[in-house]
Write a structure and sequence with these properties.
The complex is a heterodimer of chains A (about 120) and B (about 375).
Chain A (H helix, E strand, L loop, with lengths): L9 E2 L4 E3 L5 E4 L1 H7 L2 E5 L6 E2 L4 E7 L3 E5 L4 E6 L9 H4 L8 E5 L10 H8 L1
Antiparallel strand pairs in A: 1-2, 2-3, 3-9, 4-6, 5-8, 6-7, 8-9
Chain B lengths: L16 H6 L3 E5 L2 E6 L3 H10 L2 E4 L6 E4 L3 H8 L12 E7 L5 E9 L8 E4 L5 H14 L5 E4 L4 E7 L3 H8 L12 E6 L2 E7 L7 E7 L3 H9 L3 E3 L1 H11 L35 H10 L3 E8 L10 E3 L5 E10 L6 E8 L8 E6 L2 E7 L8
Parallel strand pairs in B: 3-13
Antiparallel strand pairs in B: 1-2, 3-9, 4-7, 4-8, 5-6, 6-7, 9-12, 10-11, 11-12, 14-17, 14-19, 15-16, 15-18, 16-17, 18-19
The chains are: A alpha+beta (about 120), B alpha+beta (about 375).
Chain lengths: ~120, ~375
């Protein structure tokens, strides 16, 4: 089984990704496959602040409840409202329509994250 | 995130493990067994069983054979139902209780269609076979009964074929006599040249059969029955049984962590107080005084998923019970749960709260099955 790992994103060992240009955060293709059918996503409110590695929400599949962690410290500027009615978007398009939140963050924090190559090695 | 396959060395594996691995199954540890939890997706597997047919490897279930002149007496004393009602080829659901009436396990007792060595077979849950073997032999020896007890769990495999198309499918792979079986009746039939015990029973709420066979015939039986049939893992087995409110041993009751009598657990229909069994006096007393807590179903009216261990409160915020099982119902697309509540709150339609990560979410007590039968 091989999983998508887009080159232009940064990753956490706990399988979250962040887009350095937009600040969008989600979970990886590998993570959604491990979880199976996602049935519920609990997201923070706009304006909430999180430290890096702090849990900012929960993704629940039928079989598991998984905390999701902020890849970088930042403030939530947007959440993906579509997931309330269509949590399955996390499975169907984890790097696209299945994004979770947008964070405003400091670019310097990206240095602590995994590159696509690093993350690919981790899940190999 | 679920564990991957780096599990302990002591795991028991079903005879079909290699086939499941080849089919790309994800595995999970359950009751000391390494079992497939998901083949394709839980939703896909669940829908197949509700709409057509699915096949489950349930070889983690125990098998214990009981024979000899006192076989019936031994089973009568150690299970809550009336074993004397069983004709050859009949099966019966029962609880296994201790002196306090607390359920140690639940089981199906079969009176075998033909008797060679053993007269009866009973099926404890995964990981309970050694405990039940000891319980049966200890009781036999303490009461000088003449009965043989054999734990044959490792010698047999077991599959369940479930769904509206299951009767046609199983009939086509056998001589067809399985069609004549009533619910909870069993017969011997050949599948792919392997002699099997085929019972009209299951754990999904659908029509279907459970098939027991010698472990060395497992591959042939699976290949024959799984042809044109969705392979299903324990994930879908759990969501399917939850929609019907069926108990899961170890999760909805547990001798140490959540001791419950069969009356509290809502399976009084499997208790015959006119028979003599270990735990009978305690259950008789509970029957007379009434239940403090009852096993109920609930549907969450808000977004969220009830899970094992979540607190149930009244609308005033008083703790009144606990969720023992829950999921997002694949059939309904609604969050459903099972659990125990104070009897004052057990009536259908009562509004309660389930505490999900610190927040009360409104739920309605709803008697299972959650879906139309």
């Amino acid at each position: 089984m091989s999983f998508d790992v887009p080159d232009d994103l940064y990753y956490l060992e706990s399988h979250e990704w962040i887009d350095p240009d937009t600040g969008r955060v989600g979970i990886s293709d590998f993570a959604q496959d491990e979880l199976g059918d996602v049935v519920f996503v609990e997201l923070p409110g706009e304006g909430d602040e999180y430290d890096s590695d702090e849990s900012f929400g929960v993704v629940e599949s039928i079989k598991a409840v998984s905390d999701i962690y902020a890849p970088v410290s930042g403030t939530v500027t947007d959440i993906n409202d579509d997931l309330a009615d269509r949590p399955e978007l996390v499975n169907e398009d984890p790097f696209g329509d299945g994004w979770l939140v947008e964070l405003e963050f400091d670019d310097a924090d990206l240095e602590d994250l995994l590159t696509a190559d690093d993350y690919q090695d981790q899940i190999a | 995130m679920p564990a991957d396959d780096a599990t302990s060395m002591a795991q028991r594996t079903p005879p079909l493990y290699g086939r499941h691995e080849d089919r790309g199954a994800q595995f999970t540890e359950f009751g000391g067994w390494e079992m497939p939890v998901e083949f394709d997706s839980i939703q896909t597997e669940h829908a197949a069983v509700r709409e057509s047919a699915g096949i489950f490897d349930v070889s983690h279930m125990g098998e214990i054979e009981v024979g000899g002149p006192d076989a019936e007496l031994l089973l009568q004393r150690l299970t809550t139902n009336d074993v004397s009602q069983l004709d050859r080829g009949d099966a019966q659901y029962a609880a296994i209780t201790d002196e306090d009436g607390v359920m140690l396990d639940d089981t199906v007792v079969y009176r075998l269609p033909e008797s060679d060595d053993a007269e009866y077979l009973f099926v404890p849950n995964a990981g309970h076979d050694d405990q039940m073997y000891d319980r049966w032999t200890d009781y036999r020896d303490a009461h000088d009964l003449s009965a043989t007890v054999d734990n044959v769990t490792g010698e047999y495999g077991m599959v369940a074929v479930q769904g509206p198309d299951a009767p046609d499918l199983v009939a086509a792979r056998t001589d067809g006599s399985v069609r004549d079986l009533g619910r909870f009746e069993a017969t011997y039939a050949e599948v792919a040249g392997v002699e099997c015990l085929v019972a009209n029973s299951g754990y999904t709420g659908e029509a279907g059969f459970e098939v027991v066979f010698p472990a060395d015939g497992a591959g042939a039986v699976w290949d024959s029955l799984a042809n044109d049939c969705q392979p299903c893992g324990l994930g879908a087995r759990d969501t399917l049984r939850l929609e019907y409110g069926f108990l899961l041993s170890g999760q909805d009751f547990h001798a140490e962590d959540n001791p419950r009598t069969p009356l509290e657990a809502g399976i009084g229909f499997a208790v015959d107080l006119d028979t003599e069994f270990v735990g009978r006096a305690a259950l008789q007393a509970q029957q007379e005084t009434g239940l403090d807590e009852e096993f109920v179903g609930l549907v969450l009216d808000e977004r969220g998923v009830p899970r094992h261990g979540y607190e149930i409160t009244s609308e005033d915020g008083d703790t009144i019970g606990e969720v023992t099982s829950g999921t997002m119902s694949p059939t309904l697309g609604e969050p459903i749960g099972l659990g125990y509540v104070d009897a004052d709150y057990a009536d259908d339609g009562t509004t309660v709260d389930v505490v999900v990560r610190g927040t009360g979410k409104q739920a309605t007590i709803t008697e299972p099955p959650f879906i139309d039968q």
